């Protein structure tokens, strides 16, 4: 049985794919290890690569705005990425990179046992929920897999490119908190 510390150490010295040669710092997930809600995005950006922490750049600021709009804080959720290393130029992760990295996400999920998984953006939704996931049409809808409720919302960087997506994403986040509260009540 691996611990959080074990996973962090494996990620810190990982050389399973060529991104380990171009990254500055690997980026492990962060947040509460007893969170009900797990956010999964695709890969660290440039600022995350410098700081070794998820969502610390412009997208992170927008994510904080979304969280604040539904009274969530980073301390009560867990945020991670499929890839733990930054793809140069912010390109989409390659299949081989996702395959090389996915076991770290599986360990994080196994240890956390979230009640709700929220994919941030198309790339995460297509890897985690369904390969043909259409973020424009399906964001905010729920899939129940083995008792874990999964949904996806627009990636913060998509909202930065197109601010008209902000309000609908705030509404999706309100529904996520509602679902968490329903699940908590059901388990009382
Ligand atoms: N974008 C991502 O997908 N992940 C991060 O950690 C930061 C930006």
Which key phrases capture this entry?
9 helices, Uracil-DNA Glycosylase, subunit E, six-stranded mixed beta sheet, alpha/beta, 6 strands, binds uracil, 188 residues
Explain the overall architecture.
This protein is α/β, with parallel strands linked by helices. The protein has one domain: Uracil-DNA glycosylase-like domain (Uracil-DNA Glycosylase, subunit E). 46% of the residues lie in helices and 14% in strands. The chain is built from nine helices and six strands. The chain has helices spanning 4-12, 19-22, 46-51, 58-69, 95-112, 122-128, 135-138, 156-161, 166-186; strands spanning 30-31, 37-41, 77-81, 116-120, 143-145, 148-153. The protein has a six-stranded mixed beta sheet with strand order 1-3-2-4-6-5, with helices on both faces. A hairpin with a 2-residue loop joins β5 (143-145) and β6. The protein is globular. The two termini are 29 Å apart. The structure holds uracil. Uracil (URA) is lined by residues 41-45, 48, 54-55, 59, 81. Uracil binds at residues 41-45, 48, 54-55, 59, 81.
